[in-house]
């Protein structure tokens, strides 16, 4: 698989959203994912990773090096 981003293993729930970081083209990117699921599971992690990859196929991080997604 050719990844557009290398995701760090720092997925955390802050009470409102899931947050993690990754590297894209040598740039640190902060990703915020809004979902109703507040319990961690491997399935959730996989869904988030796939959503990020899909999003990056058509988009670029904003000027603050961040991405916001809703699952």
List keywords for this structure.
five-stranded mixed sheet; 1 helix; globular
Structural class: alpha+beta
Number of helices: 1
In the predicted model, the low-confidence regions spanning at least 5 consecutive residues are: none
Q: Into which percentage range does the β-strand content fall?
A: 25-35%
Helicity range:
10-25%
SSE succession: EEEEHE
Tell the overall outline. globular
Q: Report the count of strand segments.
A: 5
Oligomer designation: single chain
Q: Please summarize the sheet with the most strands.
A: 5 strands, mixed
Radius of gyration: 11 Å
Mean pLDDT: 91
First-last Cα distance? 22 Å
Please summarize what this structure is.
The protein is of the alpha+beta class. The chain has one helix at residues 42-58; strands at residues 6-7, 12-13, 18-24, 27-34, 66-70.
Structure, explained:
There is one protein chain. The chain has 71 residues and is an alpha+beta fold. It has one helix spanning 42-58, and strands at 6-7, 12-13, 18-24, 27-34, 66-70. Helix content is 24%, strand content 34%. Strands 1, 2, 3, 4 and 5 form a 5-stranded mixed β-sheet that branches. Helix 1 (42-58) links the parallel strand 4 and strand 5 (66-70). The longest helix has 17 residues, at 42-58. The model has no long low-confidence stretch (mean pLDDT 91).
